[in-house]
Amino acid sequence: MSADGFTKMSIYGMNMDLFSSSPIVILKVEDENRYLPIWIGQPEARSILMKLQNQEFVRPLTHDLALNLVNELGASMERITVTALRDQTFFATIRLDIDGKTVEVDSRPSDAIALAIRSGAEIFASDEVIQEAGVEFEEAEAMEDAPEDEVVDKFKDWMNRVSPEDFK
């Protein structure tokens, strides 16, 4: 993993859990075949998807408003971190820079991710969380030369076979 206990992640995609009908945001360890699926709520999934699909609205949505407030107050988002997993609940922080002072704010991972994709902030997860809840998608290595849409379809099929209980 990493030297400082945190690993850089990227948003791999979104999926729907067929068992619970809950959206899942999937983070990927950069340069590895390791993923961190996080079950999230419908409104946060919609917010993340809208931004990933570059949909714009005349009026700011909740996560747009939150970022506007951060910016108007002279702060900037440095990074978000998925910090812990307790009782099947993920925890996160948002790190802000306010005039050279670092401030960390508690957050749900889904809200933090929605803000990160709007601000360009980097996404990290603690190595402990990745070890506890991260999964490897073994078939990806065998599909290195396959078209991206085929790999994504195979990954979605795999995600449809897992449930939150598989990550206990």
From TrEMBL:
| Organism expressing this protein natively | Rubrobacter tropicus
* Protein's name in the database: Bifunctional nuclease family protein
Output the Gene Ontology terms for molecular function: nuclease activity
Ranges where the BFN domain occurs: 6-137
Q: Which PANTHER family match?
A: VON HIPPEL-LINDAU DISEASE TUMOR SUPPRESSOR, VON HIPPEL-LINDAU PROTEIN
